[in-house]
Amino acid sequence: MTAAVFFGCAFIAFGPAFSLFIFTIAKDPLRVIILIAGKANEGLAAISEEESSPISVREMAYVAGLGFGIMSGAFSMINTLSDSLGPGTVGMFGDSQYYFITSALMTLALTLLHTFWGVVFFDGCERKRWWVIVAVLCLHLVVSGLSLLNPLYVGSVPPVYVIMLLMAVWAFFSSGGSLHNLSLLWTCRKSNAETSS
Amino acid sequence: MANTVEDIENNMATEAPVPSQNQHSEPGGTGVRSRGGGGGTAQNGQPPSTASQQRPAQVVEGDEDEDEELTLKYGAKHVIMLFVPVTLCMVVVVATIKSVSFYTQNDGQRLIYTPFPEDTDTLGERALNSVLNATIMISVIIVMTMVLVLLYKYRCYRVILGWLFLSSLLLLFFFSFIYLKEVFKTYNVAMDWITLAVIIWNFGVVGMVCIHWKGPLRLQQAYLIMISALMALVFIKYLPEWTAWLILAVISVYDLLAVLCPKGPLRILVETAQERNEPIFPALIYSSTMVWLVNMADTGLGHRPHTRKNSAETPVTEPESPAAPPPVVLGPAPLSPPEDDGGFTTNWVGQQEHQLGPLQSTEESRREIQQLPSARPPVMDDDDEERGVKLGLGDFIFYSMLVGKASAAASGDWNTTLACFVAILIGLCLTLLLLAIFKKALPALPISIFFGLVFYFATDNLVRPFMDQLALHQFYI
Hey, which residues 387-426 in chain B have their CB within 8 Å of chain A? Predict the structure, then answer.
């Protein structure tokens, strides 16, 4: 296994999460703290009741979800990555040759899924839509169950990505996005009613 | 121990006595000093309430809401300003542990403070030896703190300053030479003695200048992080495993007691310094805004706020010695690495005093600063937002030591290292949050070290086997 495998898998698994971190979180120290110590949510929830809250519930949901996703991804992937730097042969005993790349892809999917689940879950709690919460939990179980199909990768990786895309759309709409916003984005026009997510 | 230093420093101003850890030099050596900086109290220099009582304009008196929000944002910024150096130090230590095998080898050497070996026949014997080792270490720390207090009480400033100087000298030259040598060995780099001598000489001299005198802020911070990492590495190498964990636990408890109990050598130190209206010798303190000290020296403004004191709320009325952490008690000079002086060595203080006139109320300023929630940034005349935070080097050292030990000892597992790292950051966050809430000096070690220890043992024994199996079959949860 080579450095190419190491860097490739590392970037696949953690690239989007870290770019999200750098572009949306790193600038605001409060968000960094929530990312790491999500328990600050309660304290901040109290504060966000006030008029000028330092951080909105949606931001908190997003940041907490991303934090969970990064930690979950790191815990799944980091030992595998460190092994990929050392000597060895992949799939020596008839195992799949695609171990590293599929691990990286699954980690990426799970990281993003955790982020979206965080957003949707918080939204469900805020609006007291219990079916949302149940759906999020069930989807999580489904994704984990799909991973039980490994090493039959065709049965696990594409469905998980499909679910991830669906969740992305759901999270986008539940955090206030709309087709109108998207069209504004494409046409680069500013809108008065910009929703923040 | 380092923690105590911090506490001491912070505590110098604070009423809560800083655990003597800071003051006492680590058995391992200089580490004590640096540790002292961070010890115990929330470094941010939460001055004890006494300080606040002494200074009228201590606390920000804004609207409650604004105050809370400001505190939160302010606190958040300071927490981040501490996250980065703590993370850097831990990264350096973990990277070294994972690549340079010297620091994980058991050469059979031990520090004189931990004379009992741990490679015994029975577990019971091993446990007993580690308990004895930890006891000896803590006693040494307590004794060194007493010595420091006595020295300070009887005005033997030169001894303390000399000690600090020797400590940093030892650390910057000797330990970094060993480190460089081992790194070269690991990567099989050929190096001639002349080049090596030139490198070490420059590194050491610039380090001494930066730490004890003036220097660019980033360089100073970098040196402090480096010496904290060196100290942590020394501890990781020379403390046997069970002893190290025990020492971490005991030091956190000690820190907690020393900061929160009314009686203690550090408290006496602080009170003495307050009585005399003198600045306490700067110990090893990491400051994120030391640059103002340089400015102070240049401008000689008397009303510059003390670094310890931060605050917009408290108008600084007298020149304060920058970061006058309590004198770092290094303990036996050769054994303790001099890191204690988080940059504010006695020379520095001397310089300041010379230029600014007698520095006053270090403790007071410290208290004030400590009173302020969140790290206390040095007060700037103009900029409220640019306050820095201070953290004792002792805290750096102990945090890094925990994470380094986790990465060295845990079956080569990265999950454990990561878990300890996050645990320490969460502890630091919580400590600063508590500081903002209670507005008095709090020990910085206990929460982080407690979380770190819990996470280490839980992850290594419960999570690791589980995650190994999951990764083996590529199950994702």
Answer: 413-415, 418, 422, 425-426
Burial B343-357 (b: 16+ CB within 10 A, else e): bbbbbbbbbbbeebe
Point out the residues of B that are catalytic: 255, 395
B87 contact A CB<8A: no
pLDDT of residue A154: 76
Which residues in chain B have their CB less than 8 angstroms from residue A79's CB? 413-415, 467-468, 471
Q: Per the CB < 8 Å rule, is A33 touching B429? A: yes
B70 reaches A (C-beta below 8 A): no
Name which of A33, A50, A103 is nearest B79 (Cβ-Cβ). A33
Cβ of B76 and A79 within 8 Å? no
Phi then psi for residue B206, to 5 deg, are -60, -40
A20 CA to chain B: closest CA distance, Å? 18
- Give a yes or no: residue A15 inside a domain: yes
Give me the amino acid identity at B411.
S
Distances (CA, A) of B229 to A95, B110, B129, B235, B389: 42, 19, 27, 10, 19
User: How many structural domains compose chain A?
Assistant: 1
Contact in structure between A82 and A143 (CB atoms under 8 Å): no
Q: Is B476 on the interface with A (CB under 8 A)?
A: yes
pLDDT at residue A119 in the model: 92
**Do B72 and A76 make contact, defined as CB atoms within 8 angstroms?**
no
Computed over every residue of chain A, the mean pLDDT equals: 82
Residue A54 is nearest to which of B73, B415, B429, comparing CB atoms?
B73
Contact B283, B25 (CB under 8 A): no
Structure confidence at residue A38 as a pLDDT band (50, 70, 90):
low
Select from B277, B389, B276, B274 the least CA-distant residue to B342.
Answer: B389
Q: Residue A174: inside a domain, yes or no?
A: yes
Residue A185 CA to residue A183 CA, distance in Å, equals 5
Instruction: Flag whether A184 is in a domain.
Output: no
- Between CA B320 and CA B293 the distance in angstroms is 10
Alpha helix stretches (DSSP H) within A85-186? 99-126, 130-147, 153-174, 179-186
CA distance A34 to B208: 38
Which chain A residues touch B373 with a CB distance below 8 Å?
none
pLDDT at B298 (0 to 100): 39
* Chain A residues lying within 8 Å of B475, measured CB to CB: 144, 147-148, 150
Q: Residue B74: its pLDDT value, please?
A: 65
Over range A92-116, report the average pLDDT.
89
Could you give the CA distance from residue B57 to residue B40 in angstroms, rounded to a whole number?
A: 25
* Mean pLDDT (10-residue bins), chain B, 477 residues: 39 35 35 38 40 41 59 70 91 93 83 83 90 92 84 84 87 93 93 95 92 85 91 91 92 82 72 72 62 39 36 34 31 34 47 47 49 42 52 87 89 86 91 77 85 93 89 86
Task: Determine how β-strand B390-392 pairs with β-strand B285-287.
Answer: antiparallel
Question: B107 and chain A: CB distance < 8 Å anywhere?
Answer: no
The per-residue pLDDT for A185 is 79
**What is the domain extent for residue A112?**
2-179
- For residue A30, the model assigns a pLDDT of 73
In this structure, is residue A52 part of a structural domain?
A: yes
